[in-house]
Design goal:
Layout (H helix, E strand, L loop, with lengths): L20 H21 L14 H6 L21 E3 L9 H5 L5 E9 L4 E8 L8 H5 L5 E3 L14 E2 L1 H9 L17 E4 L9 H5 L5 E5 L17 E5 L9 H5 L5 E4 L3
Antiparallel strand pairs: 1-4, 2-3, 3-5, 6-9, 7-8
């Protein structure tokens, strides 16, 4: 069978200027040379891990006349990295563990302090932590903050658990930390007492982490005619509002539920 005749009307195949092999090489080289020339007067590469954005010394040394490298500036106020703990100011209020949605914080005893009332500080398991920041937001004393340290590579899962002492070492390293609100808002709820229910058991004052609750004597009721005066001296808790951190420990340990949250009068 004879070959079919060639189709008529089809345009001839021509090599355009953009398809020349020489341009395939020249254009990428020109782009690379252009970027190299820019890097001579404004570098944009951070040599990690020798140079780190979270290092204050590196941040102060990277400034050049024409500007700063990409990504370098003031520290981010919402950065969420490894926690730093100031054990000295921790009051063991348990609010960090209570507010943790991942249940990765456990209050453990730290050396020192009163043997009768041992001090407990948070221990964080970073294998469960989602770095939500709720714990640092809930800390009334601002002793638990989040730093710019983001490296958590370890060989054993047990090394992901940071003890209070280990987080205190992070605190002493003076890494940039996010700002924490320590001052309480004016409309924050106060702790109120229902006097008829109080039995004067001292549980609230005993477990208060800031020692802001004092048990005071209440006036004895005048006995009715023919009744004997009460021998027991009743006491009621009085809360020092300026020292209270609103941790709610007194409310949780009250056996009669006579302490409750209420609005300021």
């Amino acid at each position: 069978m004879a070959d079919s005749p060639a189709r008529t009307g089809s345009p001839p195949l021509e090599t355009t200027e953009t398809e020349r092999p020489s341009l395939w090489v020249v254009r990428p080289l020109a782009t690379a040379a252009k970027q190299f020339a820019k890097s001579l007067w404004r570098p944009s590469t951070i040599v990690y891990p020798f140079e780190r954005l979270e290092d204050p010394k590196f941040r102060s040394a990277v400034g050049v006349e024409s500007g700063r490298p990409i990504g370098v500036g003031e520290i981010w106020d919402n950065y969420r990295g490894v926690h730093a703990l100031n054990i000295q100011t921790c009051i063991s209020c348990n609010l960090c563990a209570f507010s943790c949605p991942d249940v990765c914080i456990e209050m453990v005893t730290v050396p020192g302090g009163d043997p009768k009332h041992p001090k407990k500080c948070p221990e964080i398991d970073y294998g469960k932590c989602s770095f939500c920041g709720f714990c640092s937001d809930a800390c009334p004393e601002g002793c638990l903050t989040m730093t710019t340290r983001y490296e958590l590579s370890v060989h054993k899962r047990a090394d992901m658990v940071y003890s209070p002492q280990k987080m205190y070492e992070v605190f002493q390293s003076k890494l940039p930390m996010n700002p924490i609100r320590v001052a309480r808002p004016e409309n924050e709820d106060a702790i109120r007492l229902d006097p008829p229910l109080c039995i004067g058991c001292f549980a609230c004052s005993r477990d208060c982490p800031t020692n802001c609750i004092t048990m005071v004597d209440i006036p004895k009721a005048t006995p009715k005619p023919g009744e004997k005066p009460a021998k027991r001296i009743w006491k009621e808790p009085v809360i020092n509002d300026s020292d209270c951190v609103r941790c709610g420990t007194c409310i949780s340990v009250c056996p009669k539920d006579c302490l409750f949250w209420g609005s300021r009068e």
